[in-house]
């Protein structure tokens, strides 16, 4: 091959590598569920319109319930009937098949191109109806409506609000290309928020889930940005010389806690009011003070500090004052995140040389290690407190995983290419 | 004779031990690693040079260039203290920068991947600042130096083991 031809082929390879799809598509895999998962039958939904059904609601609902680790959906092939109305549900048949819970539904076209989904939830053991809803929807909203059904079913069966209608943000890195991505909690509907050839870090959801704060690097260093998801409009919040990092949105959505450094590289927690841009220092110590997290009331800020030697978690009033140390077990507890019920902290904990996600009980101080990896980091609670999503390493690649807060259910969110990291679960999308 | 070679071997071993067990590997993109300080006992006897003798000034220049070629300083785990081995390297960079005030550098601070990312940003900044401080104490102007901490975001070695981590805990001096 001539020299020119060789260069041409190489250039072609380079181009194709560059234009190859870089989306890190996520698939959720249950690695370990509860042994007494409740058997449910989510019957394929009926469709009253012409042609084939435009969307498989039952599949999305069954996958959601399976993903929670608490339910074991029945295989469709094992269903002897596919009822779409209450009258057609034969409880004794379902009991014989081992299903304790039955979900049925029907999708109906309504006027003006809209749709409605009827669904009902039955306790097959008692032979009683537990829920019956009609939800209006449209073609773009089918998937969201299916997650809404999962939320209602989950809440009826567990007494705890479902978190299937939520989103996650995470960072994907492939061959030096960084992407900040948001996706549905099941990994579907991925949307790239920002792309860069420099590191992207530390996404944080606004309390209303419409904006993300994050850190982006340029050749001049790090900056903190706030970006509106719908429009893509972003604004720079902090770009001092040195460190601009760890943004955390206050519960009222009006302030950001940040880690900022001074002229001598000393990192402290600061609070910026978004409207005025006014920034105040919250901690003042030669140690590294970073990774702030707000309490739900907005009165307190938890943060990581190595003022006692190694990194530990401290708590300080958001109005200022003397920080109190809150973690004592082990030589490394960092990146605190508060459980939605405020009783526990999820932290990165050094467990005999392995970095794992642990829960620290704020009352007793007891530490419970939840994960089994070597390099686990970035814990983030589901808004209902049932699961913690985090980043781990598998065969040299960064992957996402989730664990139930009781430690019994383990999921892996499998990506096709590159490293994925820093997952952050959104708040509830509806009040 | 046997006794003599054993003694020589012992001296060599002591010299290796004195270098603190630091790996003598070189970084692909960052020039050479600092040689351990040699003691008088281990100074090798140079063969008679066949080329004309270099002047003292030429030798000084060569030594300086060699030191300036080192642009990566390695750190211990969760540490930001500069190892004494690097003081000659930093002195060379300081005199180079102080001699020409138009020169600008970025000091990048980096960490290994263990632990949380933003804490590592803080640690990387400390490493970069530790280097900055030494340079400023030796006459470099603050306006010549910018620091950027990349934390664990830009590893030099891709692995997930002790060897890779040792190469990733570093500060890099980048001339602009």
Q: What can you see in these coordinates?
A:
The complex is a heterodimer of chains A (431) and B (176). Chain A is mainly beta. Chain A has two domains: 133 residues, 3-Layer(aba) Sandwich (Rossmann fold); 259 residues, 6 Propeller (Neuraminidase), CATH 2.120.10. In chain A, the strands form seven sheets. In chain A, strands 2, 3, 4, 5, 6 and 7 form a six-stranded mixed sheet that branches. Chain A is globular. Chain A starts with a helix and ends in a 6-residue tail after the last strand. Chain B is α+β, with helices and mostly antiparallel strands and 176 residues long. Chain B has a domain of 122 residues: OmpA-like domain (60s Ribosomal Protein L30, Chain: A). In chain B, strands 1-4-2-3 form a four-stranded mixed sheet. In chain B, helix 4 links the parallel strand 2 and strand 3. The N and C termini of chain B lie far apart (55 Å). Chains A and B meet through loops of A and helix 4 and strand 3 of B.
Search tags:
heterodimer, A: 431 residues, mainly beta, Rossmann fold, Neuraminidase, 2 domains, six-stranded mixed sheet, five-stranded antiparallel sheet, globular, disordered N terminus, B: 176 residues, alpha+beta, 60s Ribosomal Protein L30, Chain: A, four-stranded mixed sheet, 5 helices
